[in-house]
Specification:
It is a single chain. The protein is mainly α. It has 4 helices and 2 strands. The chain is about 50% helix and about 5% strand. Strands 1-2 form a two-stranded parallel sheet. α2 packs across α3.
Length: about 100
């Protein structure tokens, strides 16, 4: 399997509301020093099924995104908000009022 395919598979498995750094993706893909290559691969990916917006810089900043940094921040905030609502709903045990 090519490095690109390994990177996309790692990113595909990042759950909503979670993030990995470019370095963490590179490590999980088997090439710990290839974090810049991870960024280049994700920058060229336009498949909406691959959640590239969930990959951030090691310092916690969002980093780049091929649809714009503001869109990346918006998507991350949206996923965090939805995750929080689901957690709150489960705590209250009112599943019927917890649609997204």
């Amino acid at each position: 399997m090519k490095f690109k395919d390994r990177v996309l598979n790692v990113v595909l498995k990042i759950p909503k509301g979670k993030t990995l750094s470019y370095r963490e993706v590179a490590e999980k893909a088997g090439s710990p020093k290839a974090f810049r290559a991870v960024g280049n691969i994700l920058n060229k990916n336009y498949d909406p099924k691959i959640p590239c917006h969930r990959v951030i810089r090691s310092n916690g900043q969002t980093g780049g995104y091929n649809r714009g940094s503001k869109e990346k921040e918006k998507l991350l905030k949206l996923e965090l908000t939805r995750k929080f609502k689901v957690i709150q709903c489960r705590k209250k045990r009112k599943e019927e009022t917890c649609s997204s």
